[in-house]
Amino acid sequence: MSTWIICLLFQAVVAGEVLKFPPGFKLGTSTASYQIEGGWNASVTSTGKGENIWDRLTHSHPELIADRSTGDVACDSYHLYEEDVRILKELKVDHYRFSLSWSRLLPGGFSNNINPDGVVYYNNLINALISNNITPMVTLYHWDLPQPLQDLGGWTNPQTAIYFEDFARVAFELFGDRVKMWITINEPSSICVGTYEADIAAPAYVRSPGIGLYLCGKTILLAHARAYRLYDSVYRKKYGGKIGITIDTIWAEPKTNASEDVDAAERVMQVGLGWWAHPIFSAEGDYPQIMKSRVEQNSKVENFSESRLPPFTPKEVKFVQGTADFFGLNHYRTLLISNHEFPSDSPPSLIKDLGVVGSIDPNWKPSPKIVPWGFRKVFNWIKNAYNNPLVIVTENGYGDGGGIQDNARVLFLKEYMKALLLALLEDGCNINGYTVWSIMDNLEWRDGYTVKYGLYDVNFNSPNRTRTPKVSAIFYRDVIKTRTLPEKWNLDTITKTVKTLKLPKFNKQN
Ligand SMILES: *[C@@H]1O[C@H](CO)[C@@H](O)[C@H](O)[C@H]1NC(C)=O
Ligand SMILES: *[C@@H]1O[C@H](CO)[C@@H](O)[C@H](O)[C@H]1NC(C)=O
Ligand SMILES: *[C@@H]1O[C@H](CO)[C@@H](O)[C@H](O)[C@H]1NC(C)=O
Ligand SMILES: *[C@@H]1O[C@H](CO)[C@@H](O)[C@H](O)[C@H]1NC(C)=O
User: Keywords on this record (predicted)?
Assistant: First the structure.
């Protein structure tokens, strides 16, 4: 077929608004171990689950969690995983992304001691998914570091990369015969910035602005590369699966067209996303040049003897390069960015290294929290920066105060999936999957249970943690069934529609 015919077809597709997910495109939902599992001290024996950094934080500093809650029980998925599989089946998702609790498998963090109950739990979950035709997509690390490893410095300790490789080996050995989609690490920025720069994660009280985050980042990238190379050299031949990393990013929109704001927004993309993606996906490898030069320059002015950004050796650059079969993308929001140079004698920090300030536009339609064109721009930025790698959206979703009539979430999901389809069909971005965060309400880290992202409501007051579909679950089920954004979920009438929508009674048996 000649190019002009293809162009014509694409135009027809877009003009007619019949946006269809192409054959083979995967639609799923996502969770993470600490946010749903509970069973925090299940079978506390010499080989039971160990304590992780979120157990420690929620127990020792309840005042740092919005509602003083913990993940001790959460959605109780440790006991109710069959319920999770049942609701995934109701939606008929292609895949389910969940994470392994490192300290449930390796109570002390090290691979010398494996908890048999943890192995049984994940085997049961994986087998239940597979027998229901749901592809398990497994994240090795989604923020719940074993406390004993944190006590040794956590991700600022270079040795943690080796402990992570050990953990990955245990997981590949145990589950690699059935798990064909692996994600090494979820959102490195959230880990390193959230802990060492901003103190909005776990552990708390370990801030070291402008320094700790870069140590953490180097370990994370080497840990990721170790797990990838291990899989690539030993397990790929046996099992033929895929392994990637999940990187989160905002879209950084220049606040004005002035060149300094355009450059500032580009810096945010280069550092926020490129910090992780450039070493893995770019032709040159290593950190983005702008990141290296700005941190080096600031460090010099601040009288450090060397850059606060620890460099990779040439051997490490090569080791990290090319270590992903796909680009897992988490995206939630868009910010306006303007240039802002901080005084040279101000203390070291990431924001100083970036030299920017961010804001939102309160007039954004449909709302400052729903900016779908930013999503489309992210896909295009990745396509242009890294030669159009295979992208799988591993998280996208909308947080609210909870409730079944979640109109705003329906609107968000529909608009963001539309933006994804435009990036795919019109812009030629190489996207092959979309994963809603989250299948159900869960523990939203330091926000506790005050912010809800679920397609299903969870009754946290009931010992059964009853899961009830929200309107967005019905909407997503329709999307999955039709492989389109169905006409009946018309944006203009969504409010009216959902008010009169009857939630179908799902049959527990199928
Ligand atoms: C486990 O934790 C719960 C609190 O979530 C506590 O009541 C219980 O005693 C603990 N069990 C063991 C065996 O430590
Ligand atoms: C920047 O320029 C583009 C193209 O000329 C225009 O569409 C856009 O509105 C401008 N943005 C701002 C913030 O002025
Ligand atoms: C760095 O050292 C120089 C020379 O001692 C001094 O003038 C300058 O104020 C120092 N800069 C900072 C940020 O402390
Ligand atoms: C919890 O589930 C059990 C078993 O299905 C049921 O008998 C019980 O009534 C439920 N309890 C609540 C509070 O929903």
Answer: Glycoprotein, Glycosidase, Hydrolase, Signal
